[in-house]
Amino acid sequence: MPFNSINFIYFFGVICPIYWLFKANFKIQNIILLVGSLYFYAQVDLKLCALWAVISLITWSLGNALEKFQQRKTILWLGLFLIFSQLFIAKYYNWMLGDFSGTTSIYKFASTIGLSYYTLAASSYLVDIYRKKLSPVTNPVTLGAYLSFFPQLLSGPIPIAYKDLPQYSQSRSISISSVEEATQRILFGIFKKVIVAGLLAKPVDYIFYNHSELGFIYLWLAIVLYSFQVYMDFSGYSDMAWGIAKLFGIKINANFNSPFISRTIDEFWRRWHLSLSAWLKEYIYLPLGGRGSSKWQYMVNIFIVFFMSGVWHGANANFILWGSFNGLLFILAILTGWTREKNDTQYGMKGFFSMLLVFLSIAFTRVFFRSPDFATAITYYQDMFKLNDFSIPDIGIMGLGLSAMIVFVEWLQRNKKHPADIFGWSLSIRLVIYASVISVIYWMWPTQNPIEYIYFKF
Amino acid sequence: MMKKTNLAFAFATGVMIMACSDKKQTTETQSTNLKETVQAEYPEIPREEILEDDTLSTKVYNELKTRYKNQLVELQKAVSSNGAQLVITFLSPEVGESLTKSNRLGKELVEGYAKELQVPFYDLTQKLANQDPKVVTQLPKDGHWSKEGAKIIAEELTPIIKQFSTVKSTKTFAEKPETFGDLFPSNDEILDGGKGLPYRVKTNAQGLRMDTDVSSTKTKQRILFLGDSEMYFPFLDNKNIGTNLLQTAFPDKEMLNAANWGYSIDDYVSLYKEKAQFAEPDVVILTVNGNDFLDMYFSHRNRFSRNKQPQNPSEVEKSFYQKHFSK
Predict the structure, then answer these.
(1) Are A205 and B192 an interchain contact pair (Cβ–Cβ within 8 Å)?
(2) Distances (CA, A) of B115 to A45, A255, B214, B220
(3) Nearest Cβ partner for B190 among A8, A13, A395
(4) How high is the pLDDT of residue B22?
(5) Residue B39 phi/psi, 5° resolution?
(6) For chain B, which ranges sit under pLDDT 70?
(7) DSSP helix/strand/coil, B202
């Protein structure tokens, strides 16, 4: 049930008012969230709901066991083993056996959508209790509502337990301004996902599928368009998720912070898929020692994190190569000193060229991400450097223009909480902007509603 | 305060409903006509069931044969009245052992009708039969022609075009419609039909699947191609479709591709009469396959035919439908 579907609107139209009827009792609200989220998830595959319930019960039980028993380390490892073994069986088992068709898979699911996200959330819950950053919840419904929260169930953002779970044990509020803020994000998200990503999808598919017949300029264009497509698709989804969660009085993590205005590689990864980065940092990078005592250790840790990011994206050598490629790029940036401090906000002409270079470097690695297999990716890379056909592309121009416009808006709004934040403007101007955006969305809405999301498959 | 919050909720929900409503659906609802009503009443389309060995099925098939033949006669008349040459070609991805019963029977029938009407008939599947289906079609994703398949088809059509290279139609038209084909004119879009086979469709200003417009003054021999998706060549860019390959091979001729998805003989007749004949083609190459006979069943026509009038079932068709699809 994608957010931009009529079924979701009906679902939301029913659950949201019921939820706020019980504003005074957050425990009942949690039950409503849990039931609603499971109904939402059951639309994908009922068996996935059953697996979710098993993982959640294990997590809840072991979370309490961590508090009560002395063998804390054993309980933690048992919990992590049980959680990640489900992910492994569902996503990686058949791939490890060399069967790419999935016929040997133990679980016969229609898809494994959501699994990669809530297993990270569940593991973060156990680790945080083990680290004594969080107390276990006594009521399984509270944990269930947190782990199943439908706006972030299918594609994140991945929550960090000790930061996000406490919200489910307290009453929530809603106000005119929070509804407006949610609306801003939802509209921005719909525009990015449905309009821009929708426009980009066809030329990208076309060029990647027919790359051996097209000139090299087309191939370079496709990596640019695809980078924008992934961003518009995923950040559009994340913005909608954030807005919808806000309408339930829950604040979920941001997933993006205008990544394409980054001037260095490290800055890019501080702005891209923030919830995954935060999880990897908290539970892999820092336990490995973070920056450590030497540059060598720092680079090894960075590489491991990117490698794991590739593994997380899926049972496919291309994702691991994509992750590793980006890890190497990061290491190259460290070695050349092409890094940037967090609070450096200077943007000059040099900054513009740096942005372009970062964008192209990241886009270049996307060939692995987009190609169906290693051989196709290598052929694509080879074709990118066959300078024998100088045909100027005549497709994807509209999508490219709109993407550039969004990046420009993000650059203009870089000091705001979010690019869609227009609270600095007067109410009348804001209303005009909302009406305009709604009109544009309505006018440009494609005949085929794009209900597939790139990050649903991870 | 609570009232304001509710209003804001209503606003947000309204926005999302409006944004997510399918505009196409709205348009379709508005243009609901009789044809759609009949289609809704009879949504199922039988295929091989029509060829079962029972009296009712035989009666239905006989009706479809008559209907097909009448339309073919109609097309032959329309083409010859313009002094043009009709040529029938048989083309199907079902070749050799994969030829289904309906296709085999249909092929024999259409070949017989062609003989009766003295219309040249050519089987284009001879060379294709020796090829690996995965090479000449898009299998396993789709059964339509691949680039290699389109190339072979163009090669098979080449001698036929040469054979009729001196034919000239006699009729000219002072007034012409804006389009000669049914495709959206001057279109350039990427489609994939949900098969993961993205391709680029370009149409000319006259709604034909070709890169150039048909010139207002006829200076070259014009070959018109009528057919269904086998001649439309889905999942291939214009440059790779059979008619474009022929255009490159015959620069002294104009190859007009008016083929379209799901079309059958009645569509070719109406398309020719309403639009295509005004392009003044000298040779009309009709591409058929044996399954076209089954397309004449009323529920198939209501789903796919270009004709806007609904086709109601005959008594025999109705009985057959009730027998097979009534709960």
Answers:
(1) yes
(2) 57, 70, 32, 29
(3) A395
(4) 46
(5) -60, -40
(6) 1-32, 95-97, 327
(7) strand
Question: B150: distance to nearest CA of chain A, Å?
Answer: 16
Q: Is B184 on the interface with A (CB under 8 A)?
A: no
Residues of chain A numbered 247-306 and touching chain B (CB < 8 Å) = 247
Say whether residue A176 is in contact with chain B using an 8 A CB cutoff: yes
CB contact under 8 Å between B196 and A445, yes or no, is no
Complex ipTM tops 0.85? no
Paired tokens of B282: 């000298």
Report helix, strand or coil for B253: strand
Q: Which helix (H) or strand (E) holds B222?
A: strand B221-226
DSSP assignment of B290-327 equals: TTHHHHTSHHHHHHH-S--S--PPPHHHHHHHHHHH--
For the stretch A214-249, pLDDT in tens is 999 999 999 999 999 999 999 999 999 999 999 999
| Residue B226, φ and ψ in degrees, nearest 5 | -110, 135
B16 to A5: CB separation less than 8 angstroms, yes or no: no
Residue A203 confidence (pLDDT): 95
Among B5, B18, B188, whose Cβ lies nearest the Cβ of A442?
A: B18
Classify burial at B235, counting beta carbons within 10 Å of its beta carbon; exposed 0-12, middle 13-18, buried 19 or more.
buried
Q: Is B40 on the interface with A (CB under 8 A)?
A: no
Distance (Å) from the alpha carbon of A172 to chain B's nearest alpha carbon? 14
- Tell me the per-residue pLDDT of A384-426, one tens digit each, with 9 for 90 and over: 999 888 989 999 999 999 999 999 999 999 989 999 999 999 9
Distance CA A226, CA A376 (A): 16
Q: Residue A332 half-sphere exposure, CB side, CA atoms within 13 Å? A: 11
Other beta carbons within 10 Å of A57: 13
Cα–Cα distance for residue pair A363/A358, rounded to 1 Å: 8
pTM over 0.80, yes/no: yes
Residue at B224: amino acid letter: L
